[in-house]
Amino acid sequence: MNAPQTGPEDHTAAEDQDAGSPACVMSFNANDASGASGIGADIATIAAMGAHALPVVTSLLIRDSAEVFESHEIDAEAVIDQARSVLEDITIASWKVGFLGSAEGISAVAEILSDYTDTPLVSYLPNLSWMDEDAQMGYLDAFRELILPASQVLVGNHKTLTDFLLPEWDAERSPSARELAVAAAEHGCAYVLVTGVQLPDQFIDNVLASPQGAVAGERFERFEASFVGAGDTLSAALAAILATGTSLDVAVSEALSFLDQALDSGFRPGMGGVVPDRFFWALPPGEQPPEGAPTEGDITDLNDQLPPPHTRNVH
Questions:
Q1: If we measure between CA atoms, which residue out of 284, 289, 300, 280 comes closest to residue 45?
Q2: Which of 162, 183, 208, 225 qualifies as a cystine partner to 274, CB 3.0-4.6 A?
Q3: What tens digit of pLDDT does each residue of 152-191 get?
């Protein structure tokens, strides 16, 4: 992996960052007032991993803990100004890209990323079925053209990535993680981290793959719960770990382990889904997870659910 670096006019991370200070991770994501997904999830996860979050808000999600109702875009210049102001002052070690609001938002973020090509980028693609069809198609086309080529890793649910990368797939079997990685590589993305791969037993698989095959992964025992924010949690954790210079395969294993424990300790703040507890490790010894924590059964991230929000498919 290439060492993280800043833009053309800045010093390297090693020169500017004080010894022992946390790595800085810039996240581009929507604000979710429920705190379950989006920029709030990224901030909590990055902090839980011991890094410092630099949050850039790209849009405003109107949602509760069960479903997304709509999104309000933030002006693309305002997104650029948020990021540039910080980047002129602070050295970053990795990026996380979540929901960018619109095709215009994607273009604005891609403009920034193009100046920092050696800094690892983790991109997360949530399910966007709540969007208007034309807006969704425009968003996905822009994401495919501008974000994928800059991404070291694309993170997403198996169904979501299949629809995005292999929309004409018509075989009876689902595509493998390697086949998804081959499709992503055609757009310049080196790896995919595919979550929620259904297995015939009481487990689901999560696989990091390149076009050559599976590289790393972990199996999760199924939980009987619908989750909100699992994908944002996993991708933010991966970005934070990569910011320390950890190799990708090790970083993926650590991020998946963190997610598994966060889901196991998850809580239900409202009438919708279960939110991962990103600070599960801060519970006093012997204290039980909060009431409403998931039990063994199905894993579903409501951000990746089709149709949202009340089914309990295995993801």
A1: 280
A2: 225
A3: 999 999 999 999 999 999 888 999 999 999 999 999 999 9
DSSP strand pairing (191-198 vs 203-210) = antiparallel
Q: Residue 238: which H helix or E strand, with range?
A: helix 230-242
Beta-strand ranges (E) seen in 21-101 are 24-32, 52-63, 68-73, 94-97
Collapsed DSSP state (helix, strand, coil) of residue 45: helix
Reported as a single tens digit per residue, the pLDDT across 211-237 is 999 999 989 887 777 889 999 999 999
For the chain, how long is the longest CA-to-CA vector? 54
CA–CA gap between residue 259 and residue 29 (Å, rounded): 19
Among candidate residues 30, 155, 193, 2, the one with its CA nearest the CA of residue 93: 2
Q: How far apart are CA 27 and CA 94, in angstroms?
A: 9
CB-CB contact of 243 with 34 (8 Å): no
What span, in angstroms and rounded, lies between the C-alpha atoms of 92 and 31?
21
Give the list of residues 6+ apart from residue 59 with CB closer than 8 angstroms, or none.
30, 31, 71, 72, 73, 74, 99, 100, 101, 102, 105
Q: How far apart are CA 158 and CA 261, in angstroms?
A: 21
Residue tagged 């889901």 (tokens): 263
Those residues whose C-beta lies under 8 Å from the C-beta of residue 223, and which sit 6 or more positions away, are 263, 264, 294, 295, 296, 297, 298, 299
Is 265 in contact with 294 (CB distance < 8 Å)? Answer: no
* Amino acid found at 228: V
